[in-house]
Design brief:
The strands form 3 sheets. Strands 4-5-6-9-8-7 form a 6-stranded antiparallel beta sheet. Strands 1-2 form a two-stranded antiparallel sheet. The longest helix is centred in the first third of the chain and has 14 residues. Helix content is about 30%, strand content about 30%. It is elongated and about 70 Å long. It is an alpha+beta fold and about 240 residues long. The chain folds into 2 domains: about 60 residues, Winged helix-like DNA-binding domain superfamily/Winged helix DNA-binding domain (Arc Repressor Mutant, subunit A), CATH 1.10.10.10; about 160 residues, Chorismate lyase-like (Chorismate lyase, 3-Layer(aba) Sandwich), CATH 3.40.1410.
Amino acid sequence: MINKYLTIYDTLVEQIKNGEIRPGTLLPSEHELTEQFQTSRETIRKALNLLSQNGYIQKVRGKGSIVIDVSKLDFPVSGLISFKELATKMGDKPKTTVHELSLITKPEYAIRQQLSLSAKDQVWKVIRTREIHGKKIILDKDFLNKKYVPSLTKEICEESIYEYLENDLNLSISFAKKEIIVEEPTAEDHELLDLEGFHNVVVIKSHVYLEDASLFQYTESRHRPDKFRFVDFARRQR
């Protein structure tokens, strides 16, 4: 005999997938679902927890359970892909807004550490938001060593820095070391992203290297949690 909470879960999943319950809308309250399915609140909570664990809803304090767009962008954890390439691959038209483009002549200690800089090195600082379907869902904070990137413009940052580096500067971007963590949103996140009540962001910190193993870029990419599915392929080695 199938547990009732699994039956309720399957029913709600089907309604989400076929569009009967649309992304961005609130599920009925626990009380309303209890009456709808003629069951206990505990059974409803088990179904909701399973929906949350499998990425169908996001529980937001003070609001309830928001239905997530299940057609999330697949973000390859181990790959090196620009936001423009990712969005184009998924058939979406992205919009990038540059909030800051500056050349730091005396980088602070933390940035020098991240990029293994000398005291004389200069760094480009780029802060951009990424928007899809009218929602600002990524905040990118890029730091690039001027030794490898002698010039940078707002137009380049709005289009694609990687296209410029590879096609105009003929740089060979090779690999990156990445760290993925979950943090509470900062004041800057709340200001520049459409967080809509979400109480965490997924942060990817990347150190990016050229083909000759030169470290040229440090990036902190802060993602709204409901719009991305971080994917990878793993093979067991014996």
